[in-house]
Fold this protein.
Amino acid sequence: MEEGQEKVCYYVFRNVRKGIKKMIDRVKQRSGDALKHALKSLWMIMPMLLAVIGLIGLFETVITPEMLKSLFNGSTLREIIVGILSGGVSVGQPFLSYAIGGELLHDGVSLYAVTAFILSFVTLGIVQLPLEWTLFGTRFTVLRNLLSLLFAFLISVATVFVMEIFL
Amino acid sequence: MTKQTQKRKPGKSGLIMLAVVGVLYVVTFVFSPETGKNALAASGAIIKMIAPILLVVFFLMALLNTSIDAKYIARHLGKESGLRGWLIALGGGILSHGPAYVWYPMLSEMRKQGARDGLIVAFFYTRSIKLPWLPLMVSYFGLLFTVLLTFFVIFGAWVQGLIVDRLSRVGRRTKETIDF
């Protein structure tokens, strides 16, 4: 290899190495900053998260399926409203809502109310409100929860209505 | 809304809330130690359950800050995101795992970086579709019910997102008029 070619190779190699080193340094710094930022964000919400978890534990223990069942008696409209409200205050794994809903259906509660209960069980959450409010603000929290309430009603009616057409 | 969120200190309100819950537990323990113990055990079980999901969310947040910038978020989930934005929000909601509150920090971060409120609302609503639990739903209520409910939830999430976006636009316009 000639001297000129050697020099070109050397400069190319040096610049590529410099570039890679710079890139690695930037990635290192950015990921370090990002991890710090993520950790700080989680640390900031940790007290609220723990408070919400504590509330969920209390609600899970105090509000029993039997208590919920005793609320359902009356007209379909009233049962739907009770379904939405009781689903909103209930907490737990989604399969619990199916199990409770199945039992309610077995006990003669309308499918409209059971559907409303299942929907609001997952989409509404009174105990999560403080955390949602802290992170998303009042307007977003109020709007989202009001829409969830309204749509639990609309979707339960639409689902059972269409189902009755098919059956 | 953004100003409000920036002014509020999550740490402070969280500490107050934690203190209130602490007092509730003390009261429960005084009146019914058994209930208090069960509630504490239930909370412990929840922490155990959400810990791995929280870890995933933590790394997703870090990833969001490292490789995905505000421009990227705005393009995929912002005003001009179009159909792609809806598909990401609706699909993400269906596929996301664990309780909704675990996802709050990441979604609030994305919102700060320009994600639309409508898409976040749609994400939250489609979270009510729990893919792993669908077979159980079928066994309790039948296939037709499950299919119809899933369809209406997705449709409802989209409509809610549209409503929120529309209201956000109206709110912004009103604010601009008042400022002017």
Q: What stands out?
A: Chain A touches chain B through 68 residues (CB under 8 Å). Helices of chain A lie at 3-62, 65-69, 76-89, 94-106, 111-123, 129-136, 138-166. Chain A has a mean pLDDT of 85.
